[in-house]
Write a structure and sequence with these properties.
The complex is a heterodimer of chains A (about 260) and B (about 180).
Chain A: H1 4-14, H2 20-31, H3 35-53, H4 62-75, H5 85-153, E1 158-164, E2 172-178, E3 182-188, E4 197-204, E5 210-215, E6 223-227, E7 238-245, E8 256-259
Antiparallel strand pairs in A: 1-2, 1-8, 2-3, 3-6, 4-5, 4-7, 7-8
Helix pairs in contact in A: 1-2, 1-3
Chain B: H1 2-13, H2 17-39, H3 42-58, H4 70-93, H5 100-106, H6 112-115, H7 120-131, H8 134-144, H9 150-157, H10 161-181
Helix pairs in contact in B: 1-2, 2-3, 2-4, 3-4, 7-10, 8-10, 9-10
Chain lengths: ~260, ~180
């Protein structure tokens, strides 16, 4: 078999007009490797390209290029991420500088924050202590109110009003008093006592005033104090408050600031 | 020129979008008229143009310079895709191929007189096709622009298949000679 039939097949194939069995036959021939046919196909393609080039030019719609560039940008950007060697060196150098920088910064930040954290821990501990104190004070106060309320439920409990005297006429007070259980005193509008002094409460029945405890007031002039029952259950006729040395005294010596009638 | 074109395709294969833009600017003005001549609808031609260049971007790595110039690479693709489009449309509409003279009329006219004023190689090629014996020119145009196979051409022009083959071979030989002798 000469090559001549393939020349015709190649020309028809180049035009895209080869069909049927002949097309399959020619493709097998090509696959087997034929420089002559390859050459014919290449020259035919160039000749047909030249034919197209000879066509009058027509400007393609500009939106086609725009659409293509968008499509490419949307789907193939990773292919662009291949770094040039020079850029790679820079990238490595920059990365190294960043790591060293981060190490320094990290140490510096750590030392700074260590101090800061220590301070915060101390502050937190102080706050916790204060809260515990406040909580204890509140519990104490609640216990006082609870006791007062318990006393008030008892019909034998009396409420005695105290009036301001002498240096503090605006001072007021109440004593909730039970003959057997004792009671509580609540005062208001009392000025703070001078340093080294305290208010001392007295119970007065038949005879000399009996000391009934020491107390102080807060910044708003309020104070409370638990009063122990009088020994022997003797009746109390008068409650009085005087200013005394902070250690307390067995008999009143200072000015009287509150008293019941 | 050819080397520069091959370089562009290599850059495209490496993902260079700028190379693609240059490649498009260089080849689209040649490829688009061919597509338009084959599919004849401007909207269809735009679609085909986009597909052809998209495939070129996608398949850039597969380009082998030893098998043809970038221009031939693109024109072969464009012609194939355009014919695919025409055949699909023809199947959908169930109509037979439009009369050849109608197809020629729809194509941008370039009468022989105007061709003489074109650049030298362009005039040579067009006149090469025009100078072919009418019988050879006809079969080449039916195959290349209308997308008919050799069997369809034989049916259409009512000639034996062997005659069609011979005309195709002789016509293409003549065209190849013209290209080879005009650098």
């Amino acid at each position: 078999m000469t090559h001549e039939p393939f020349d015709t097949l190649a020309a028809t194939y180049a035009l895209g007009a080869l069909d049927g069995d002949e097309r399959a036959q020619f493709e097998r021939h090509l696959a087997g490797g034929c420089d002559v046919c390859e050459e014919t196909l290449r020259e035919s393609a160039e000749a047909l390209a030249a034919l197209a080039r000879a066509e009058p030019r027509a400007i393609p719609p500009p939106e086609v290029k725009d659409a293509l560039l968008r499509r490419i940008a949307a789907t193939t950007s990773p292919r662009l991420e291949r770094p040039q060697p020079r850029r790679l060196v820079w990238a490595v150098a920059t990365l190294a500088a960043m790591i060293v920088g981060a190490a320094f910064t990290g140490t510096f930040v750590a030392s700074r924050y260590e101090g800061r954290l220590g301070q915060m821990a101390r502050e937190a501990a102080a706050l916790r202590a204060r809260v515990q104190q406040d909580e204890a004070a509140l519990r104490e106060q609640i216990a006082v109110y609870q006791a007062a309320v318990d006393l008030l439920r008892d019909p034998t409990t009396r409420v005695v009003t105290l009036h301001g005297l002498g240096p503090s006429p605006e001072a007021t007070g109440r004593v909730i008093w039970h003959p057997v259980s004792g009671g509580h005193v609540f005062v208001a509008n009392l000025p703070a006592v001078p340093a080294g002094s305290a208010y001392e409460l007295w119970t007065i029945g038949d005879g000399a005033p009996q000391p009934a405890g020491l107390f102080r007031v807060d910044a708003s002039g309020r104070g409370t104090h638990r009063i122990a029952a009088v020994q022997g259950g003797k009746p109390v006729k008068v409650f009085a408050v005087t200013i005394e040395p902070e250690a307390g005294v067995p008999a009143p010596t200072g000015p009287m600031v509150l008293a019941s009638k | 020129m050819a080397t520069a074109g091959a370089d562009l395709i290599r850059q495209m294969a490496a993902g260079d979008r700028q190379a693609f833009a240059l490649f498009y600017d260089r080849h689209a003005p040649v490829v688009f008229p061919l597509i338009l001549r084959i599919v004849r609808e401007r909207a269809d031609a735009s679609d085909v143009l986009q597909e052809v260049f998209w495939e070129a971007w996608r398949d850039a790595e597969g380009y082998d310079p030893s098998r043809g110039s970038p221009e031939a690479w693109m024109i072969t693709r464009a012609r194939t895709r355009a014919i695919d489009r025409v055949r699909a449309t023809r199947r959908r509409s169930q109509t037979f191929v439009a009369p050849l003279d109608e197809a020629m009329a729809a194509a941008p006219a370039d009468p022989a007189g105007a061709a003489a004023e074109q650049a030298a190689d362009r005039g040579t090629i067009r006149s090469a096709l025009g100078r072919l014996p009418e019988a050879q020119r006809e079969v080449i145009e039916l195959a290349y622009y209308a997308g008919l196979t050799q069997t369809e051409i034989a049916d259409r022009i009512k000639q034996p298949l062997g005659t069609v083959k011979t005309r195709i071979r002789l016509g293409l030989e003549r065209l190849r000679d013209v290209v080879k002798t005009s650098p």
